[in-house]
Specification:
7-stranded parallel sheet; single chain; alpha/beta
Amino acid sequence: MKNLFSVKDKVILITGGSGVLGTVMVNHFAQEGARVVILDRNVEAGEALVTNVKAKGYEATFIQTDVLNKEVLLSNYNSIMSKYGRIDVLINGAGGNMPGATITPDKTFFDLDMNAFKTVIDLNLFGTILPTMIFSKAMAAQKEGVIINISSESAIRPLTRVCGYGTAKAAVTNFTKYMAGELAIKFGTGLRVNAIAPGFFITEQNRTLLTNPDGTYTERGKQIIAHTPFGRFGEPEELLGTMQWLASDASKFVTGTLTVIDGGFDAFSI
């Protein structure tokens, strides 16, 4: 019997692949038998990850990229197509936030740094749009392929502080739905575009915001846990079941969706 959830031999591209969440995804899909291409700007981290994956007997390739540079992405595309001849799955994992695009309790909207705000919009939104524009060309030619975008809890409901990030991720969600229709109608129903909305996971970018040096929660961390029915932060591995489902034929009739993975945060009020 065919395993609907299999991703064996699929060529899976992961932008931001050497980050905390990306690394977990890379290791998972490699162990599932996929041919994983790590796309990241951090050469040292990317090459170390490849070494680690190969040491376990699995396949991975690192290619340095810049998700905001179309020419670099085109070069990446040519390298991938030369090596594998196809692209089956694109996971747009590159993203992030920066202090100037946030509004801390001692600041107001009028203190917002518009340059930082634009940088965050560019990285999260255009850093999703440009890779999609370049790499989905292979999918259109193949008449099949999967794109998984990384949205956020802050795209669903506006969270305090993360003004720029939430705005960008809300746009990513809208772009996901738009592209689902665009690709299916014009290139066939073998092309699917979905997104996940992770709740609160500890990463290098938010660690100091949510936890103290001794591992206890900051006030922000405590607020989040108080509004999460599961009473804890998520573990990166808890994203993998949904990612596997979306990347595989198990979700063959699923497109234009946003799957929330948040321990109940979005469902809970008081």
